[in-house]
Amino acid sequence: MMRTITLAGLLLITAGAWAQSAPPPSAAKQAVVQSVDRHAKDLIALSDEIWAYAEPALREHRSAKALADYAQRKGFRVERGVAGMPTAFIASYGSGRPIIGIMGEYDALPGLSQKAESAKSPLVAGAAGHGCGHNLFGPASLGAALAIKELIQAGKLQGTVRFYGTPAEEDVGGKSYMARDGLFNDLDVVLSWHPDDRTRADNMSSYAMVDVRVEFYGKAAHAASDPWNGRSAVDALELFTDGVNLMREHIRPRSRMHYTIAAGGDVPNVVPEYGKVWLWLRDSQRSEVEALLVRVRKLAEGAALMTETKSAVTIQTGSWELLTNTTGARLIDRNLRWLGPITYTDAEKAFALAIQKENGISEVGMSDVIESIEGQETETGSTDVGDVSWIVPSLGFTIATVPKDAPWHAWPVVATSGMSIGHKGLLLAAKTLAATAVDLYEDPAALQAVRAEFEKKKGSTVFQAYVPPGPPPIPK
Amino acid sequence: MMRTITLAGLLLITAGAWAQSAPPPSAAKQAVVQSVDRHAKDLIALSDEIWAYAEPALREHRSAKALADYAQRKGFRVERGVAGMPTAFIASYGSGRPIIGIMGEYDALPGLSQKAESAKSPLVAGAAGHGCGHNLFGPASLGAALAIKELIQAGKLQGTVRFYGTPAEEDVGGKSYMARDGLFNDLDVVLSWHPDDRTRADNMSSYAMVDVRVEFYGKAAHAASDPWNGRSAVDALELFTDGVNLMREHIRPRSRMHYTIAAGGDVPNVVPEYGKVWLWLRDSQRSEVEALLVRVRKLAEGAALMTETKSAVTIQTGSWELLTNTTGARLIDRNLRWLGPITYTDAEKAFALAIQKENGISEVGMSDVIESIEGQETETGSTDVGDVSWIVPSLGFTIATVPKDAPWHAWPVVATSGMSIGHKGLLLAAKTLAATAVDLYEDPAALQAVRAEFEKKKGSTVFQAYVPPGPPPIPK
Amino acid sequence: MMRTITLAGLLLITAGAWAQSAPPPSAAKQAVVQSVDRHAKDLIALSDEIWAYAEPALREHRSAKALADYAQRKGFRVERGVAGMPTAFIASYGSGRPIIGIMGEYDALPGLSQKAESAKSPLVAGAAGHGCGHNLFGPASLGAALAIKELIQAGKLQGTVRFYGTPAEEDVGGKSYMARDGLFNDLDVVLSWHPDDRTRADNMSSYAMVDVRVEFYGKAAHAASDPWNGRSAVDALELFTDGVNLMREHIRPRSRMHYTIAAGGDVPNVVPEYGKVWLWLRDSQRSEVEALLVRVRKLAEGAALMTETKSAVTIQTGSWELLTNTTGARLIDRNLRWLGPITYTDAEKAFALAIQKENGISEVGMSDVIESIEGQETETGSTDVGDVSWIVPSLGFTIATVPKDAPWHAWPVVATSGMSIGHKGLLLAAKTLAATAVDLYEDPAALQAVRAEFEKKKGSTVFQAYVPPGPPPIPK
Amino acid sequence: MMRTITLAGLLLITAGAWAQSAPPPSAAKQAVVQSVDRHAKDLIALSDEIWAYAEPALREHRSAKALADYAQRKGFRVERGVAGMPTAFIASYGSGRPIIGIMGEYDALPGLSQKAESAKSPLVAGAAGHGCGHNLFGPASLGAALAIKELIQAGKLQGTVRFYGTPAEEDVGGKSYMARDGLFNDLDVVLSWHPDDRTRADNMSSYAMVDVRVEFYGKAAHAASDPWNGRSAVDALELFTDGVNLMREHIRPRSRMHYTIAAGGDVPNVVPEYGKVWLWLRDSQRSEVEALLVRVRKLAEGAALMTETKSAVTIQTGSWELLTNTTGARLIDRNLRWLGPITYTDAEKAFALAIQKENGISEVGMSDVIESIEGQETETGSTDVGDVSWIVPSLGFTIATVPKDAPWHAWPVVATSGMSIGHKGLLLAAKTLAATAVDLYEDPAALQAVRAEFEKKKGSTVFQAYVPPGPPPIPK
Q1: Backbone angles phi, psi at A103, to 5 degrees
Q2: Which residues of A touch C282 (CB under 8 A)?
Q3: What is the pTM of this model?
Q4: For burial by CB atoms within 10 Å, which of C254, C474, D156, D462 has the most?
Q5: Is the four-CA dihedral A118, A123, A125, A127 of positive or negative sign?
Q6: ipTM of the complex
């Protein structure tokens, strides 16, 4: 297969620019790069396996097992089914401080099945696909943890490394449950990365978000013969959404509210006794999200009062805004620049261009630069990494694994995540994670600086998860 | 003038059909008919005077004075400014029981000024006009009271007669304040009539109604620079009206709710801190109106809750549904049939046809029959006579004073109310009122039967006015 | 009572009284009653079989087969799968005129599974149940057709009898497709009945109805990062329903509009590109339904214009108001009174009372009278018999098969339809259908009178089905 | 770069410091300062006179006359009633180029009458007041023009000076009509200023805006007896505003839409045949405002379609976003720093503190610094100077005339505009305007630089006024 043939080429990432602007990379740092190269074949195989499984949120049974089994085979202590989720696990090695975590995701997206080809073509019609590249995410992170484990085992580094298998990022928010249950509490730092169309250390926040279910309960009646005896839950629902839309003028321009009508009556000839709105509230500040939530509760209560129905507002999930760590971003940025951008074969370049042509976007191929950590704007999207970032300094970055400007959560991401373009990203991600971890193990001052920034920004805030008490919503 | 020239012709109303189906009209009954004819010139002059004044609700100063002065000149005891309204008065004569009241209205309608001509032509552009024929109403009723007074004075009848000058029927509801203040409490029966396009004794109910002011109080802010600090009273208002419209599916088909937006913000660049809806609720049953009002209060409260504003729901006025009295309707019907329908001159017929042609309606002229008391449907409109009808048996009828199917509250009513067609109606109305009063004075069994039906229908209900405590809203 | 006596004896109640005021029941009429009794065991077994199948609309494969097979075994010519519906069939016998049809239904309702017990207890949780008693409907009608077939076969009656197996009354409207395809065109009369809580000949109309799907097509966008690039189909949907609710003030009080929100977006973080409302419009007059539909089309078009989306309004099904036939109702009424009301055992009475107690309604047991054909009010519900009634005179009646005032489309109907109370109703229905058919076969004047009333009421109207061209929506 | 060179100088506030970092103020510049001081008494008297008149938009008859008469007395050629507005005028002196305009406003705000006292106390209850300080604006600008006129007359400067008396800034937008009619077309530069709570040269844009009237025309009917024959204009209005609010999710966060309901029906018992919304659309980009307007037209059209009414969308006024001129801002800034901030007496300081105390805001007194031209954010408000700024380079600044953070368009502004705090601001404004004009007359390079920036930013855009053709809406 083309994928294995090009494997050799993947290993040629060099590190020229480093020497000029920073201390020369330590032996340990050189070692982790070599480790990733040494396990590259395994990691790519794991990625391709998970890509083929394409299991959505909280259904990642085979994907999680593949990763956990690999970790176990490689000598990690593995705890499976943590935080009430059968597909969440933690693989640990070493002892004592520092304790550095590396997170990996592996859930797919419904309906996005696609072959590793440059034109839209489902692998299995209607099935899920890795439209967010999480098949690369898990193996890269585990590969980094493995590289560190080898150095600890060899006595070259002191401390503990932990790989967090974090399911359900696309829905529910697996990390939020793990955060709620305290699984990150004793970490010194946590690292992660994400596939993207560009390569850079993250130095931007994301939006805080709550995901709420707003339900109304009315009284049924025959809509033709005695509608006056009915009290419509859908009337309440419509007033509620009217209220949301009127409220839009009176929220800060940066805030976002968006909803769907998840239940709006069964059959027309019955006055509906049940209605449901699914609503997300977001803002760059968690405090504002909470202020919006207070108002949304009033909207629901008022709409119920107006229609003589009952309402219930339930938080389903949510995440805090990401707490950035510029000190950490600089460490990552330095490692990215040392490792350098990926180079692509002509075939890969053609693949990327073909995808861009298919999508009617600028045919510029893959991004081939390391972008700056300066001037990054807050992401209006949300992530469950946000929750983790208020418990432990969370450092992250993105690696270009898809053509520039390709639509996200869409078939092009599935396509490149299943072939050499994605594989190259996986390896660069693993090396960057491991190299940054080495910095933190080897240089107590660096670790201290990262934590100092974290403590200062966090202040006295104590994380409290938006996800409700009780077990996660495991599908049956 | 044509109006005075035709006066002689007005007096020729004969009474042929009576003998066959009822006891022969008493001498007293003959006398009241003659009395009305004797004062016809005065009554018509009063009507024309009030028609020319055309004073709207609670501004009927000259109109009320003209009537009260006439009554005083004719020997009535006159109490002016009753129930807190400068334009309300009571003119009494006699003593002891029975006490029979006759009500008269005299308020005009804004914007309906019109000459006594058969094509649209305002007398004074933009001014008020008697588009409901109340200029005929007051004088006819006073004429009937005068006829009775003469018989009491002559010792031919025993008891008391009272003319009620009841202002502001078109707005506010003058009778409702008089009812609230107990001015009808000691009556045995009250009589009234109304101009119409047909002649018949009333045997139908009307809708109960409340007139409410729904106000919202928000918080102003600059709509461009910090709308998020504002809480819009108009948002609340819009949710309120949305709620009213959603509620329409869940009220009985016979109920009516209608509103206007009376205040919806001053200038666009300020988030409005005040909003007002003017709402009427109606149903054939007062209990249902009250049930609607309970729900409307919830609508207002809920809309305020949803928008973080304050609400206030204030009853401005309202009236109960009319309590019919079929026993009384039969008395009136018998007198109408005795007095017979009005006959019109060729000029009058042509006048009526011309109006119908102008309005694009069927050119059938004036109604010339006494319609039946059977099969009358509830009127969806409302009247302050409704309130009176729960305190004292209230008998009424309509007299054709406008062409068949002519639009009401419109120029054709003003036109015919100012010329001989209206004058003939006035005289027939006065005679019918007086003749029916004679029946009640002379025949204790008839009076008793009327009251028995009233007591039975009313049951233990005790009237409570919808109009609020405190003085009526007298304009400044 | 006096009123019925003066109605030329039509309404005299017992079979004994029949002789006095009407021709004695013919031998043929006696024979059909005996035939039903002779096949009672078969008919009840068929009913119980269909009750157990409980197959919903257009899925009644086993139910239709049971009935069609029985008809075939009994000597009818059977045509299956008519009008494009696998579960529709026609069973015929005889030749020449008159051709009399008898319709039978057999579809169940989703979610109403219930044992034949007097307390709520599903037979199969979540499964369908005969909550409208159609398991009784089909066998009774077929039993009546069989009784007539025997007489034709025996040369006692001349003409043709046809049983129409009409599926999907509860949804889609099977008869509407059969009517559209002309399957009733050559009939002289059609008969049917329906289970109910009371027994009487139908002399009331039902509401005309159209069932429409209103769809909106917008443009998706990320709801957090660029909602300004999206055009929400749900915005359009909400404006559409706002429009419906505002319109309620401006339709006749007797009209009905009711809807559900069938699709209102998938996930909150995507601006919805699709929305669907499911709407029914009803009125006692088809012309008014059509006027409403014109306005609804404008609502959809306007809502799309306002939101820069596209709309589509599609008629899914619909039915005309029922054309009553009082001449036919009198025939049925006479037969019902001849056959007399059902008598129940103590156990059956207790069963009925227990159901009423369970439902918190008046514990009065089963209705035991034949109610009058006078004073029946238009049913605000709709039926696909309405369509048939504009093609051929359609005579019908109801038989009490459930306790008085028991909730319809609910478990009590399933319960009594599966035990002796329902069975007794089935037999009375079969006898009444057959006896009325005998009247029409034997008495050309009666048939002629029924048709004359039909022709007069129908006038020149030519039936056109609301159901769209093309095949019925057969589930896969 | 000049910017960094001059930056040092900017920070040195006194006129003494000027010499070190910039050319010494010319004799002409010294002369204009002396001129303003010489006429100070006149200018303050004019200001107090206009303050006392307090005439609102397009009613500034006495205010305009006072200024125009003064100009005429001082030797200007005065053209009154320009651009169709009786209260607009132009006063000119000199000939040839450059032609420099100076604009002055003088309209008051309804309802803000206030004495020149530090606690709320209306001068004339309910009357207008100078809540935007325009009584200072006009005289200061005219004083500057007079200073220039004296130099031209004395042969010290070459060219033409023009004072523009621009009415109705608070409503309608007088400058927009003057711009539409080409009255600014031949200018080289135009100068203006505005009272404020801080002193600085303007270097920020403002929002473009259109002010539209959205009207609906329905069909009246009696709301109780036949509402089904009515088509409510208020229904249309409500759908329209619903549409605006739904649209809020789908516009850029920086855009603003705000409205009031200006007409929402007369009396509840009539289905309203007329409804009016008053709507403002704003964005920092005129193109976006126009895109919003296109959508608003669809909202109105769709709402009318949905309700079977008619709609009309009419632009009443509007203004373009302000085209900034940083070159000009630097000239002004230099002059402001030369002239220095105002110093206040103890009494004035106490007056300012008392106002702040009354308003519950920070008691910091008057601003006493010249603020920077760097980092100014776009003003979300709009101004008719925006229109002018696309025709001719428009330079402006603000002078502190009210206490820091005092509410605008409120009584504190009226108070300080009527006493010495305002007067001091007036004089500094006049001097700054005149000094900046001197720079432009004396230094062709400076004028050329200002125009070059203007031409570059404007590009090929040709101004087209939002105000409609035809006469301005002069009140009667």
Answers
A1: -100, 145
A2: 224
A3: 0.90
A4: D156
A5: negative
A6: 0.87
